[in-house]
Structures are given as structure tokens and as C-alpha cells.
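Problem 12. The chain below contains 159 residues. Write out its predicted structure in C-alpha cell notation.
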Amino acid sequence: MSYEAETIANVFLRFAREDGRGVSHMKIQKLLYFAQGHAMSLLDAELISDNCQAWDYGPVYPNVYRHLKKYGASAVRSEIVDEADAERFDPAQATAVKPFLRVVWNKYGELDALRLSELSHVTKGPWARTRRANNANYRAVIEKTLIQEYFNGLSSRVE
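Solution.
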């Protein structure tokens, strides 16, 4: 089962609150990207139904961007909500994948946004390949097959 990016972002926001850590909008974007990649590789399942795009500063889930851009580089202070449907992005929807997401959080949550950005910008990675193939088109979609292929090839898995 796949989830909207905002739902998975809210799971990470709860982990950050539980662990007493601040988390920026940029860091949430990178955590989503790594969670999607590792889920596709290790679970052979699409975790996030939304498409990720290759923006100038890395992989971005546009819907999450729209909700969190107001925070700029500051720590995100509250979960994403949909005014019309209060339960739409409820992290409880993702209970089945919460243990997996906790592993991703434990691996990447201590890294700062800039380090996560470096990891997402590797030359042979999906973001860089998409940018090259699309002449740095600002909103080019990073194909999910490309994400899965890349994460399948990583030697260090999330464990």
C-alpha cells in the first residue's frame, strides 16, 4: 500500500517530536526520498504514491513543499493537515510501515539537511540523472523505476 507524501512526512514529524529533534522542511523532503527508495528496494513496494521531482536543491515532493514552505529553513512546528479532511494525512494510516519508517529515521534522522542533500545529489543517483536527462528542468519527475534501480544497487542497506 502506498501513502500520500504528507502522511509519511507526518510520521517523520512525530518521530522528530518524540526524539526531541527539530526537523527542517528540506530534511523532511530528503527523508521522504530515502524512505521511498529503500521501500522500493527492500520491500519491493511503492511507499509514496506522489511523484518526486528533481528541483534545483534536490528531490522534492511538491505537495509537501506547498504545505511546509512557510517554515523556510526553520524547524517545522506542526504536522501537515488538510482543512477539508482532518484525517487525510493522519500518520496512524501508516501503522503497517511505521517500523520500517523508524529504521529509516534511525539511519538518517541524525544527519542534518545539508548532509542528506549531499547524499541525494550523488552523480549517478536518480536526482542527478533526471536533471541531466531533462536539461535541469526545474520540475522534471524522477521516475520511480529509476529510484528503485538506484536503491537496489546500493551496497549499504537500511537495517
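Discussion. The mean pLDDT is 93. Students who got a different answer should revisit the alignment rule from Section 12.3.
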